[in-house]
Amino acid sequence: MKVRVRDIRLEGLEVTEDVVAETLGFEPQFDFKFIKPLHVEAKFERVDSTVLVYADVNSRYESVCARCLEPLEGDWEKHFNFDYQVDSTIEVIDIGDDIRQELFLNLPARILCQEKCKGLCVGCGVNLNNEKCKCK
Ligand SMILES: [Zn+2]
Ligand SMILES: [Zn+2]
Predict the structure, then answer these.
(1) Is 130 inside a domain boundary?
(2) CA distance from start to end of the chain
(3) Is residue 10 part of a domain?
(4) Nearest ligand, CA of residue 69?
(5) pLDDT, tens digit, 9 for 90 and up, residues 76-106
(6) How far is the CA of 112 from the centre of ligand 1 (A)?
(7) Residue 84 lies in a domain
(8) Which whole number is the average pLDDT over 116-129?
(9) What gap in Å lies between CA 3 and CA 110, rounded to an integer?
(10) Within 10 Å of residue 74's Cβ, how many Cβ atoms?
(11) Half-sphere exposure of residue 103, counting CA atoms within 13 Å on the CB side?
(12) Distance, CA 76 to ligand 1 centroid (Å)?
């Protein structure tokens, strides 16, 4: 996601873009992938030689429950702030790299289908949310 520095006027510049995560170098993981493009709403403001960026990013993901391994989907939403130093030689700011880094840092660590998910029986492997375990 790129903007030209000279397009950032006094009142700021708002840019909305849908970005496919893979185009930022974000590879789908076996247990986590975005199933919609990242919807990025970014506001750029210039203060002297600094460009401040406030970005809201949201999407939807597909994952599996960390306890019972059932597939699940969820909404993913984050707010990021970036700043960039600019001088007369810098014409374009690209926030794509920073968004990619923040994606990796902000992935949900342990996703559960429900807070009280009972998981799988270690003996027989049944999903204890749906079935009664038969082992002792
Ligand atoms: Zn579960
Ligand atoms: Zn069992």
Answers:
(1) no
(2) 57
(3) yes
(4) 1
(5) 999 999 999 999 899 999 999 999 999 888 8
(6) 5
(7) yes
(8) 95
(9) 35
(10) 13
(11) 29
(12) 18
Task: Please give the residue range of the domain that contains residue 93.
Answer: 2-105
What pairs with residue 53 in β-bridges?
44, 82
Rounded CA gap, 72 and 99, in Å?
24
In whole angstroms, give the CA distance from residue 11 to residue 47: 11
Residues in CB range of 53: below 8 A, 6 or more apart:
42, 43, 44, 45, 80, 81, 82, 83, 84, 93, 95
Distance 49 CA to ligand 2 centre (A): 64
State residue 112's pLDDT score.
94
Does residue 126 lie in a domain region? no
Give the DSSP per-residue string, 87-131.
Answer: -TT--EEE-HHHHHHHHHHTS-SS--SSTT---B-TTT--BTTTS
**Residue 7 CB neighbours (<10 A):** 11
What local confidence, expressed as pLDDT, does residue 111 receive? Answer: 92
pTM of the complete model: 0.84
Number of domains in the chain: 1
Q: How far apart are CA 7 and CA 9, in angstroms?
A: 6
